[in-house]
Amino acid sequence: MKQSILVAAMFFTTASAFAAPAPVSDASGGSNEDRIAKLERIIKAKQQVEFDMQRRMDSLQNEVLDLRGITEQQNYQMNQMLQRQRQLYEEIANLTAKSSTPAAAAETTQTDPAAVAAASSTLGETASYEAAVNLVLKDRKYDDAIPAFRDFITKYPDSSYAANANYWLGQLLYNKGDYSAAKQAFSTVVSKFSDSNKRGDSLVKLGMIAEKENDTAGARALYNKVLSEYADSASARLAQQQLSALKG
Predict the structure, then answer these.
(1) Which positions carry the signal peptide feature in this UniProt record (predicted)?
(2) How far apart are CA 77 and CA 82, in angstroms?
């Protein structure tokens, strides 16, 4: 009798074990909390990758700025050498003419005041621009370079260096995060110096500022404008990169 009761008890215990509901498990291999934590890790990793890419992009843009600045400085120095050579040749020619004309040596040389003022203005203009550029390329004093370029632009708004000065100013302000002031400087290059080789670069920068301001449509329009007007240029390649990475 006891044996029968024992067997019955074992039977009911086994049946209860089979009838008990299995613990709820996520078909994807974890609880909801685990899935949320996993998604958060994925999102954070993606954000870190995007942050690193943006940081590398900013670093590359700064390197491009430095390289373009060095090229610009070299071109400027070459132009200065050529200008000084021409002045030297003119002085030699004048001395030769005076020595071959005895009567001319006795005459009092009359100097045109307007010509003297123009020469002085040119030297001041060149020296001011060179000093501002050197603050960036040689001294790395970026904060000091901003007022230097502003002063140059105020004094020489129609200078042959004015477009470059505005571009330098815009780039320095962009690097500081002053996008409103940078936008004004780049817009000046675009609207006032249509023949400048900095116009395409300025359009790209305006597109990047539009991105910073969450104006995706405006940024896309500016990049496409660069591709249309400056095809096969360094500016167009940079615009295409920015356009490819543009979302929305």
Answers:
(1) 1-19
(2) 9
Residue-level pLDDT at 11: 45
- Copy the structure tokens of residue 12: 């009911």
Between the two ends of the chain, the Cα-to-Cα distance in Å is: 81
**Distances, alpha carbon 223 to alpha carbons 58, 83, 245, in Å:** 18, 38, 12
Tell the burial category of 88 from Cβ atoms under 10 Å away from its Cβ (0-12, 13-18, 19+): exposed
CB 194 within 8 A of CB 217: no
The pTM of the full predicted model, rounded to 2 decimals, is 0.56
Both tokens assigned to 124: 């001041």
From 58, 62, 55, select the one nearest 136 (Cα to Cα): 62
- Only one residue has tokens 């958060």, namely 40
Helices 142-155 and 162-176 meet at what angle, rounded to 10?
150
Percentage, residues of the chain above pLDDT 90? 46
pLDDT on residue 200: 95
pLDDT tops 60 at residue 243: yes
> Which ranges in 101-141 belong to alpha helices (H)?
102-106, 113-137
Cα gap 63→68, rounded to integer Å: 9
What is the dihedral angle through the alpha carbons of 115, 116, 122, 128, rounded to the nearest 10 degrees? -160
Report whether 220 contacts 189 (CB < 8 A).
no
**Contact of 148 with 131, CB cutoff 8 Å:** yes
| Look-up of token digits 């167009």 | 236
